[in-house]
Amino acid sequence: MAETINGGLKFEQRHGKSRVRVGRVWKLPNGSHFFAEWKVNVSLLSDCVASYLHQDNSDIVATDTIKNTVYVKAKECSEQVTVEDFAIKLAQHFTSFYQQVTTAIVNIVEKPWERVSVNGQPHKHGFKLGSEKHTTEVIFSKLGTLQVNSGIEGLALLKTTQSGFEGFIRDKYTILPETRERMLATEVTISWKYNYNSVSSLPVKPLYFSERYMDVKKALVDTFFGSPNEGVYSPSVQRTLYLMGKAVLGRFPDISSVHLKMPNIHFLPVNLSSKDNPEIVKFADDVYLPTDEPHGSIEARLSRVQSKM
Ligand SMILES: O=c1[nH]c(=O)c2[nH]c(=O)[nH]c2[nH]1
């Protein structure tokens, strides 16, 4: 927040445009098309305090102008870019073009359009919507300091066994039985921080951030499920979450911290009985009632400890 002290009061403000939706097609000479759809939020920390204190709008970058700029910059990306590249480009623009803007914060959610295959062959211009979304947050200051965070939203994972929950506190309020056999279902939200602190330190490889996104997703999924035949036992969502975060930090040295949110989405055992018929449906790890709410909420952040050297 851009901060001002006025008349003994601390005043913080920011402004921008939210949910600017843009689609961008790139058409290669060989007829292959690439497509991205983004929902963009731009937030500017700028010296436009006079508009709040004195009705003077002369330092405001109009939010309508911010919206237009998203389309202009999308047009300027003549070659395919990652969602992170686009966020960095926008943030660089706002902080360099306007003397008033000290920091730009750009958040983007990318819709998961995936190329379809027809008869086993990738289609040149056909896409279908997938499930989980690629997100990014870029914070860039006029002084050149950069922070790039990326993430995944809505990665729904489920396994039908190799999960349990035992040894937790039992008291007069506890009814949950201990188990070594249950379903485990979650919808992972993760964000991770890259350790690139300036534009000049960014990898030059084209589409680097998209590749990393796929790598991180694979590390998460592999850790959650274990090997195809044996799987891996989960003693709690907490333990599995920790191992997933650790796998990401262990595999990718350019990531300095991860934040993981993994709701425990419950599938309740179904038992149906009546006075006359005590065993209409007797649960044997087979019939479940899927639920949305309430759900367990489990989240954690795992960071590298900064070396003092
Ligand atoms: O993996 C779990 N962690 C919990 O903290 C918890 N609490 C609960 O009721 N079931 C579970 N499962």
From TrEMBL:
EC nos: 1.7.3.3
Binding site for urate: 63-64, 165, 182, 237-238, 264
Pathway connected to this protein: Purine metabolism; urate degradation; (S)-allantoin from urate: step 1/3
Catalytic activity annotation: urate + O2 + H2O = 5-hydroxyisourate + H2O2
Binding site for 5-hydroxyisourate: 63-64, 165, 182, 237-238, 264
A Gene Ontology biological process term: purine nucleobase catabolic process
Compartment(s) of residence: Peroxisome
Top-level EC class: oxidoreductase
Key words, A-Z: Oxidoreductase, Peroxisome, Purine metabolism
InterPro entries: Uricase (IPR002042), Uricase_CS (IPR019842)
GO terms under cellular component: peroxisome
GO molecular function per UniProt: urate oxidase activity
Domain of life: Eukaryota
Entry keyword annotation includes Oxidoreductase: yes
Positions contributing to O2 binding: 63, 264
SUPFAM superfamilies: Tetrahydrobiopterin biosynthesis enzymes-like
Pfam families assigned to the protein according to its UniProt record, in alphabetical order: Uricase
Active-site residues, as the UniProt record annotates them: 17, 63, 266
Function: Catalyzes the oxidation of uric acid to 5-hydroxyisourate, which is further processed to form (S)-allantoin.
Protein name from the UniProt record: Uricase
Gene name linked to the record: URI
